[in-house]
Structures are given as C-alpha cells and as structure tokens.
User: Fold these one by one.
Assistant:
Number 1:
Amino acid sequence: MLYAVVEGRANSTVMKLGMSWSTEPASGDNAGTFVFSGDTLEWSIPSITRPQDNAWLVCPDADGNRLLYINLGPYDYQTPPGCADETIHAYTGATAVS
C-alpha cells in the first residue's frame, strides 16, 4: 500500500498543501480523508473548508519535476504561477490502456 501524507497548513493564507508518499498511513491532525465521489478523488479534513474538495494543483519544483498539491482555493481561479489546476479521475474502463 502507498499512502498520501498531507503537510500541515501553516496559516490561513496558505492556499495549497504539499503531499508526499509513504508506506505508512498518515496520522494526527493532518491525516484528512481521501474518497472517490463519482469518478473524482476528493480530500477533506474537518479543520479546513475548501470551495471544491476535488481541486488539485500540479506545480513544478526547482528541478522541473511535477509535484501534486491539494488546492485550498477555488478551482481554476488565482492559480499560482507555473501551476495547473487539475481533478483526479478514476479509470472506469473494462481494460487497461497505455
């Protein structure tokens, strides 16, 4: 199993939360809940209100790698420079495609 670990929110002006990956489940106040709603992946946590629970950001790091963030702002509004607003969808096809 691979688990997403969400960074804590430093203050209310922070509009994206970084994610890392671990073989151990997240714990504590920043664990949150990942669920599929229809075919989109959502993340929520009682301590943070989001306008859209399935809004994500993909942003480059200094080396040009793409990193996944939880978007705490409205989807496709005031997107940070260099980032792209995304939603994560489940693949519902009968067979895998490449």
Number 2:
Amino acid sequence: MGSLFSRQSAPLLGVDISSSSVKLVELGRDKGGALVLECCAIEQLERGWITDGNIEKFDEVAEALRRVVKKSGTKTKNVALALPSSAVITKRITLPGGMSEQELEVQVESQANQYIPFSLDEVSLDFCVVGPSKSAPGDVDVLIAASRKEKVQDRQGLAEAAGLKPVVVDIESHAARLAAGRLIEGLPNRGADAVVALFEVGAMTTSMQVIRNDDVLYERDQAFGGAQLTQLIVRQYGFSQEEAEGKKRNGDLPEDYQSAVLRPFVDSLSQEISRALQFFFTSTPYNRVDHIMLAGGSAPLPGLTESVIQNTGFACSVINPFDGMEVGGGVRLKKMVREAPSYLTSCGLAMRRFLQ
C-alpha cells in the first residue's frame, strides 16, 4: 500500500507546494517535550507552474524546492508532502475490531473497489484506524485514502529531484487540520464542542473546513483568493503581473491603494467567507460557529478580521501555527511572524514527525 499515512519520528521537513509558493517547516522538541520551530522558508512560484494541483513546469518547481531547502539552512533530507484534497478520494468505513494489520489490509482492499472509480492497479491506496466506532461497539472506524499513482509519483519525483527523500504523502486539508488542532485547544474550554470554521485563503482558492471535536462537519473550496488582489492592482495601476505581485508583497503601492483597491477587495473576500458559512448553515443542522480562523497568504490583510466579524457576527482571528512554540536561533522572527498564516499546511506536515 502507498504511504499516505506513514509514521516517522526521525527529523522531517514539512513541504507544502501550492499554486503560488513552496513553503518549508521543520519542527523539533526541546528536553521538556515542547515543540520548537527549527526553520521555515518560503519560495515564490511563477504563475502557471502549478495549476489545479498539477505540476506543469516540473524542472522549475524542483529548482524552487532546492532553493527553499537551501534558504532554510536545514540538513534534513526526509520530507512529508501533501496532495490537494481534489486529488484524493477518502472514505470512512467501519470494520470489526481486533483484526491484524494484514487482515485489515485485505478488508480495505476488498471494500476500496466500491468507492474508487479506477482500477486498484492505478492507485496508491492507504488506510489508518481512526479509533473505536461510535455507532457500532466493538468495531473500528477506518479511513481509506486513494490517489492516482501518477499524482503521488509527481510529488515524490519533485522531492527526489531536489535531493530529498519523500517518506510521507499526506492530504493538504488533513495537514492543515492537524496544525489548527493545537490552536483550537487554545480556545475556551480547550475547544471542546466548539464549532470552528477554518479558512485558508490561497492565491487561487479559499478552502473552508468546519471542525468540531476533530470531526469535519463540512468542507468547501471556493475559486477566490489573493491572486485577485494582484489582478486588481494590475488593472488599477497598469503594472505587469510580476511588478504587481512584488509591490503587493513589499507594500510599495500608490497612496490611494488602501481606499481604491485594498478595501473593496477585503470587503468582497469577507463576503465570500460569509457566503461560504451560509452554505454550511443551509446544508447542515448548524446555524452558527463559535470561531472563524483565517490562514493563508491573504489572511493578514489589514481590516480583514474586522470585516469578517462585521459581516458574520462571529469571533474571528488570523492564526499563527507556531503560537506557543519555542523559536530556534536560525529563524528570522519578524519575517516569520509576518508570514506565519501561510505556513499552516506545511506546519501540519512537519508535525507528522511526532505522530506515533
């Protein structure tokens, strides 16, 4: 079976490859067992190198991955990567408890045929036991994950081309949830029974997951993200795509940028978030959330949190996945704090090191 859920405790890099950048995180533990951020780095990708999770420019992305490893200063070679949720079929099934690993494997393979629209020869298939079944005492819930082999091989090939050793291939939404789980525990009552809407605002897509007690109540992706802000800057000021992206990052924009471009964009982004919540309310028994968490490159935009609170009436914050961690000497603190919301998925991947 594939390695969608392999376990590792040797040093491990979490590498998140999105449509706009490659993000790397390495975590360790101190003597007391507290998490330590050893290093983190981001390398931007040019538009079109990765589209809808597909690697269109393999050599360019592999080179960017080499650069981000060099920039981070890490010596670690083992890496955890992730596939977008759209490239993975997941299914939760219930099986009798007390089976050996081999017996489980046989059962999973025989059941997987029902859920996977490809021949099993074409897929990387893996499973993990989630825990005792709530609905059937004595049984266990098992999560099956399957992806086309070429999708997994593309990611593995990228790592190998950059001189790394792929040991884990996870799912982006699972990695984001793992990193967010630490932060949910920081909510009142350690986040017990809290309904949390997690939004990751990427360049092209905003991903939403609604979580309660580690269960996913609802998931939805929207084609809306930070790239639209870049487009608005291009239209307003006549810059090229690259100029606009650079100026957006450095904050080097004309005086009227806040009022003419940024504020309208922030308003429409918060309306998209509000709309996504309405979809959740109309398709589930829920009619409120306890907290909205914002992550991704556009999450720290000035005024976004306030606009979301105003539009939805719910508590909202931008999250830093490294909150409460010690920070290693090699990390540039100011830069890390500024970019922290972008590292949610890569942080979750790096946390796989400690999942025994």
